[in-house]
Specification:
This protein is α+β, with helices and mostly antiparallel strands and 124 residues long. The chain is 40% helix and 27% strand. It has a single domain, classed as Beta Polymerase, domain 2 (2-Layer Sandwich). It has helices at 2-16, 18-22, 29-41, 98-101, 108-114, 118-123, and strands at residues 49-59, 62-71, 74-79, 89-92, 104-105.
């Protein structure tokens, strides 16, 4: 129950963010995830909370990026854009569309972990 409340607070913070609202359309998933991660980084957590960008294969050569969140070992998905054949999804991993349940780490996690200079990220 506590995990669900924390997840809902995270969703509310992201949905209140102007940048995230502006980019919440299919085809802009990477931009939406980048903005949402910045919002999540600004929240102070009292529980064991981890989150990262994830990527799934839609079709050959087409990927989709979203956020996987773990709160005290309970997993949630935050997909604010959806894609051509799927609406946005915010909820538990086990109830997520099957395509979101099978994912890999998105390369943007590497840049975040390296704390790369923003000017360098703009050139990538």
């Amino acid at each position: 129950m506590k995990e669900n409340q924390i997840f809902l607070q995270m969703c509310q913070a992201v949905s209140d963010d102007k940048y995230c609202r502006t980019h919440a359309i299919p085809g802009r998933c990477g931009e939406w995830v980048g903005g949402a991660l910045k919002v999540l980084d600004s929240i102070v957590y009292c529980e064991d909370v981890t989150y990262s960008a994830r990527r799934c294969l839609i079709e050959l050569g087409v990927t989709h990026t979203f956020i996987k969140i773990e709160v005290n070992d309970k997993c949630f998905i935050m997909d604010g854009t959806g894609h051509a054949s799927q609406d946005p999804y915010f909820g538990p991993l086990e109830s997520a569309p099957e395509i979101l349940q099978v994912s890999t780490s998105d390369p943007m996690n590497l840049y975040r972990s390296l704390n790369v200079d923003k000017r360098m990220c703009n050139r990538l």
